[in-house]
Design goal:
Layout (H helix, E strand, L loop, with lengths): L3 H27 L5 H8 L3 H13 L3 E9 L5 E7 L4
Antiparallel strand pairs: 1-2
Helix pairs in contact: 1-2, 1-3, 2-3
Length: 87
């Protein structure tokens, strides 16, 4: 059986994940192509949560890799994402 804190976190994520997905998609719609770090900063969310959401949206086909890379806050090259229906 999972620890109570793990169950609480899982329950909270079920409630917050749809809103975070919507915020990420809205950001990409409004601002345009961006890295996970740029999205996180723009929507004022933790980058770790934003990256997980971006992975979910990529697997669902809602966003795609542009092929472009930008340096993120850690100095690493990061994927620039775009909505899958944008050119």
């Amino acid at each position: 059986m999972a620890p109570d804190t793990q169950l609480e976190a899982w329950d909270k994520s079920k409630r917050t994940a749809p809103k975070l997905r919507e915020e990420v998609l809205d950001f990409l719609t409004t601002v345009g192509n961006a890295t996970a770090d740029e999205v996180a900063e723009g929507i004022r969310r933790l980058v770790v949560s934003t990256r997980a959401t971006i992975t979910y949206l990529r697997k669902g086909g809602e966003i795609v890799d542009t092929g472009e890379r930008r340096v993120n806050g850690n100095g690493n090259r990061a994927i620039v994402w775009k909505l899958s229906n944008s050119s």
